[in-house]
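can u do me a favor
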């Protein structure tokens, strides 16, 4: 009973039900449309379906059989002395995949501060031959740099975060790279447990999911619309 009732006391669900009763009282179509949008965006059943679809679109679930190509690790910020969680997560996933193969591999890194990235990867695996360079301030700069440096006859496996992976996959296709994407998971994109109260409540992590998807999609569309008549994404010389 506790697990069923407790979510109804969360602020977002108090707001949901107050909003519902306001719609009943005022009987305005605009309010009902807003309520439907708020409910569907936050509903866990809907969001978990989106998570499942997104996961099937963006990444390979495991290391491809007999993969003999190079790895590409996209930077995730940090400074000369420390790394954010997203970078540590990506490096951890990369090291697991390299150690599973137990063979020397080439790793291309695109980040401003190479030292902490290289140090952590070398600590986790002895098989990596690392090439690290500053690819630029955005993913689009990084891909423009990689386009000039990578051998397009080779196979590549990109390591990225799940919220970032759809853009990475689309950009690798635009640059005609023979690449797959492996997405290091984050809490936002993991399925949320759904109990008996799923149909009657909303969850804040679902709003986070859709906001990140919207941001990624919008960013990619801006690039697609502007790439043919502007060079804002050109890497530094």
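np, heres the sequence
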């Amino acid at each position: 009973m506790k697990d069923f009732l407790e979510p109804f006391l969360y602020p977002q669900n108090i707001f949901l039900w107050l909003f519902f009763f306001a719609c009943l009282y005022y009987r305005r179509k605009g309010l009902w449309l807003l309520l439907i949008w708020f409910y569907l965006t936050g509903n866990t059943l809907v969001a978990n379906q989106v998570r499942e679809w997104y996961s099937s679109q963006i990444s390979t679930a495991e290391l491809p059989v007999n993969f003999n190509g190079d790895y590409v690790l996209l930077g995730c910020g940090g400074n000369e002395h420390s790394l954010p969680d997203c970078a540590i997560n990506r490096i951890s996933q990369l090291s697991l995949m390299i150690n599973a193969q137990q063979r020397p591999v080439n790793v291309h890194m695109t980040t401003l501060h190479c030292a902490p990235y290289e140090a952590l990867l070398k600590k986790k695996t002895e098989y990596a031959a690392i090439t690290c360079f500053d690819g630029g301030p955005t993913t689009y700069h990084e891909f423009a740099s990689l386009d000039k440096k990578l051998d397009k006859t080779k196979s590549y496996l990109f390591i990225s975060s799940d919220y970032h992976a759809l853009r990475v996959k689309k950009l690798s296709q635009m640059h005609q790279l023979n690449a797959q994407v492996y997405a290091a998971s984050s809490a936002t994109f993991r399925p949320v447990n759904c109990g008996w109260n799923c149909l009657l409540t909303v969850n804040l992590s679902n709003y986070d999911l859709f906001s990140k998807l919207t941001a990624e999609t919008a960013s990619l569309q801006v690039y697609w619309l502007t790439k043919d008549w502007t060079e804002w994404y050109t890497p530094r010389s």
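The two ends are 63 Å apart (CA to CA). hope that helps!!
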